[in-house]
Design goal:
heterodimer, A: mainly alpha, Non-ribosomal Peptide Synthetase Peptidyl Carrier Protein, Chain A, 3 helices, B: alpha/beta, Aspartate Aminotransferase, domain 1, Aspartate Aminotransferase, domain 2, 2 domains, seven-stranded mixed beta sheet, four-stranded mixed beta sheet, 14 helices, binds pyridoxal-5'-phosphate
Chain lengths: 93, 415
């Protein structure tokens, strides 16, 4: 799981570069953090957040791939497809 | 059913409490392209898209009235089923000729043009690359297409190049008997909120390198930019690199409707594949005739474009001198950045009290969640009207402490 921890640290650093008040929550995130409920990002802010992540990870995430994303852990797996899927969330996704 | 909009409702209520409500403005009478009656008082219009002031152009009104008389109020049907008139085909030929393209297709609004063209052109196996600040109609059309959609950083050809490279690395070889996956880049000529302009020559170069397709939405630039009024594509000199041009009749041409023009072989197939073209009523003859005359004026008369450019410069320089933070480019859209929605609302209300109507643009409809006062000029604004607006805006800005006051006022305040 240390791979995932690394990815989350990088996600946090991207979050820290965004406008307040979102940036202030960067230190508190983990795999379970909900992007909409906990970080309170609206749909547009999510898209801007993802654009910043795409740059950091030198990748492309098509908008439709975001429909199943709820948590920072989900995002980490999109950014690093080799990460293992969590067992608790495997069903129903 | 509408409970899901509780947050929206709360935001709207907060706006209403700060002063007059921008969504409830209803002009009683239009006096001219630059003046209207509101609550019994004349107001100066500095927030329209009436770039050439053609809404009251006599010859457009006469052409529209004659067509109304001759062909009636509506077409009662769609182009494909029962609503194609000779005038539609003639306007399509006129647009194609004006833009130097083989073919043009009309849509009933500019919004529908983007919906119909993007959903018609791109399919599930294609990639759409949209500038991040694209208009809602582009996002909606992209979504409707079912294509993979990615946003590239606003006006950033390098980010576009990077994305095309990654998509190319991921592309799977085309299976025999299947059509290859395509990449379509979408940008706008002038962006409607900040008035900035796409770096089209650089984007065209990326398109060439990547073998992608390029669509330019000239909604705010048709009839506005270019020696001949052909838009940003003309200014950038990249006509050969632009595959599809979308535009609207609702802004510089003072009517309503939209179009797409192209040299693509079999472009006309979209008439049988684009649902926003097929399943809505066609433009009424009066509108088609008025727009056709307006386009003729754009072709024949460069002087209004020169006046528009001068007016844009006058407004932009006046507001810059007053100390406001504006967009990066001089264009007929001049937006003032303000620190937050509440200040923007107060500012907007004070301006309306002073008899000047501008647009209040708030997140989430604005890039980077900015709060903006969006102003725009017309070729038919007088210098005196623009100066009056600059003075009023500067005065309110000083009162609200957003820009430095004059030295006299500063010393008075210090006493
Ligand atoms: C860039 C852009 N495209 C399309 C449209 C839609 O045009 P219309 O209002 O004619 O439907 C607009 C304006 O509303 C726009 O700004």
């Amino acid at each position: 799981m240390s791979d995932q921890a690394d990815v989350i640290v990088r996600i946090a650093s991207v979050l820290g570069g965004m406008a307040d008040p979102v940036a202030q929550r960067a230190g508190e995130i983990d795999a379970e953090t909900s992007i909409v409920r906990d970080l309170k990002l609206d749909s547009l802010a999510v898209m801007d957040f993802v654009m910043a992540l795409e740059t950091e990870f030198d990748t492309v995430i098509p908008i439709d791939a975001l429909s199943g994303v709820e948590t920072i852990g989900d995002l980490a797996r999109l950014l690093q497809p080799t990460l293992p899927r969590p067992t608790h969330a495997a069903a129903g996704r | 059913m509408l409970e899901k909009y509780a947050d929206l409702q709360a935001a709207y209520a907060r706006l209403g409490s700060g002063g007059r409500n921008p969504f409830s403005v209803a002009f009683e009478q239009m006096l001219s392209p630059t003046e209207a009656m509101l609550n019994g008082r004349p107001v100066l219009l500095l927030g329209t898209n009436n770039y050439l002031g053609l809404t009251f152009e006599r010859s457009c009104i006469e052409a529209a009235a004659a067509a109304l008389d001759a062909e009636g109020t509506g077409t009662t049907g769609s182009r494909i089923a029962n609503g194609t008139y000779g005038r539609h085909a003639a306007l399509e030929a006129q647009i194609a000729g004006f833009l130097g393209r083989r073919e043009a297709m009309l849509f009933t609004t500019g919004y529908q043009a983007n919906l119909g063209v993007l959903a018609g052109l791109a399919g599930r196996d294609d990639n759409l690359l949209l500038d991040a600040d694209s208009h809602a109609s582009i996002y909606d059309g992209a979504r409707l297409s079912g294509a993979r959609v990615t946003r590239f950083r606003h006006n950033d050809p390098e980010d576009l190049r990077r994305r095309l490279r990654i998509l190319d690395e991921r592309a799977e070889p085309t299976q025999p008997g299947r059509v290859p996956s395509r990449n379509l880049i979408v940008v706008e000529g002038i962006y409607s909120m900040m008035g900035d302009i796409a770096p089209l020559a650089e984007i065209a170069a990326v398109r060439r390198e990547a073998g992608a397709y390029l669509l330019v939405d000239e909604a705010h630039s048709l009839g506005v930019l270019g020696e001949r009024g052909r838009g940003l594509v003309e200014v950038a000199g990249v006509e050969a690199d632009v595959d599809f041009i979308v535009g609207t009749f609702s802004k510089s041409l003072g009517g309503i409707g939209g179009f797409c023009a192209s040299d693509a072989p079999d472009f006309g197939l979209l008439r049988l594949a684009s649902r926003a073209y097929m399943f809505t009523a066609s433009l009424p003859s009066s509108v088609v005739a008025g727009v056709s005359r307006a386009l003729q004026l754009v072709e024949e008369q460069p002087a209004p474009r020169w006046r528009l450019a001068r007016n844009a410069e006058r407004l932009y320089c006046g507001l810059t001198a007053a100390g406001f933070q504006l967009g990066p480019t001089v264009s007929p859209i001049v937006s003032i950045r303000l620190p937050g929605p509440e200040v923007a609302m107060t500012f907007w209300t004070a301006l309306l009290e002073a008899g000047i109507y501008v647009n209040l643009a708030l997140p989430p409809a604005t890039p980077d969640s900015k709060s903006l006062l969006r102003t725009s000029v017309s070729a038919v604004h007088s210098a005196a009207q623009i100066d009056r607006a600059v003075d009023a805006i500067a005065g309110i800005g000083r009162t609200l402490g957003l820009v430095p006051g004059s030295s006299a006022e500063l010393s008075a305040a210090a006493d």
